[in-house]
Amino acid sequence: MTDRVIVEADGGSRGNPGPAGYGAVVKDAATGDVLAERRESLGIATNNVAEYSGLVAALEAAADAGASTVDVRMDSKLVVEQMSGRWKIKHAALQPLAARARELAAGFDRVTYQWIPRAENSHADRLANEAMDAAAGKQVKAAKAVVKETDRSSPARWTGASGTPTKLLLLRHGQTAMSIDRRYSGRGDVPLTDHGQAQAAAAAKRLAGMPGLVVDGEAAPIVASPLTRTKQTAQAVADALGGRVETHPGLIETDFGEWEGLTFAEAKERDPDLHRQWLGDTSVPPPDGESFDVVHRRVRKARDELIAEYGGRTIVVVSHVTPIKALLRMGLDAGPSLLFRLHLDLASLSIAEFYPDGNASVRLVNDISHLS
Predict the structure, then answer these.
(1) CATH classification for the domain delimited by 4-148, as one of 3.40.47.10, 3.40.50.700, 3.30.420.10, 3.40.1120.10
(2) Helical spans, DSSP H, in the chain
(3) Mean pLDDT for the chain overall
(4) Whole-model pTM over 0.90
């Protein structure tokens, strides 16, 4: 029996969903001695289900060891953030597992949650992989059946991508007064015009007619940039789907600094040399602004956080021209010149899918058929 223990847990799925398993280890916090190891095959499940199952098993093992204080260490940002209360738990499959984990946690005097890099979670990772090996052996026929029943038009049939992708429906906001005059419009918080609201309504109607956006009465997640023009556009979608709008700061438009509100010609006249460099080099920022390279890194982080939260689902992402271009660039694995060569209309719809094995597919770019 020991008062304080360190818990390390991990889980994984080869296919997401696919053959899954978890691993958990309990260590004496004072000596580092291993007090318990647990691993189990889960059959066909998702990464997130496996990770939560690992946490539950680890807390059960800690209780069996008689611990009063538990320091949980996991390389799953999703589980750590949700169990710490900073992220909401919306996926139905995770809610009962999280509830069980909270029930177990209530039996200790104190439980803390800490994210650690995967390299520092190698013990639990090894146990999880052993469990996945067993699951793969037991469930190979079931895994093949899952693949067979996937959408026959899926790019996975010819790219080799595996697992269930996270589909991003990328909607650019509608018209504003700044876009009418073709002015740099970044962090300036301007609303939609009447025409912009009509564009948003048309896009919302289009999305409401697409399959898979409302499942068992639950609307797909709708995530927008925190600026008014994107929130207004997203709210039109939420009204059409019966959902609600969340915001993510990583989806905000480029900070154009001192060029904010200027036309292309005015910015060129004001800073001719810098403007010329900016048009050909994504590392160059506007005066007191943000470079496209910085935007790309910010948006990649936002994408990763959305996938961690809603992996395997369809998400409506309402944003601006540069962040949407960045997401399409990621989907295409293209170079930075894409930002200067790709045109995206107001209220246009694009679609990119990101697979758990790192593959991606762009299925639609700059569709404005709903506006005609």
Answers:
(1) 3.30.420.10
(2) 47-64, 77-83, 95-105, 122-148, 156-159, 177-180, 194-208, 228-241, 264-270, 272-278, 292-310, 321-332, 338-341
(3) 89
(4) no
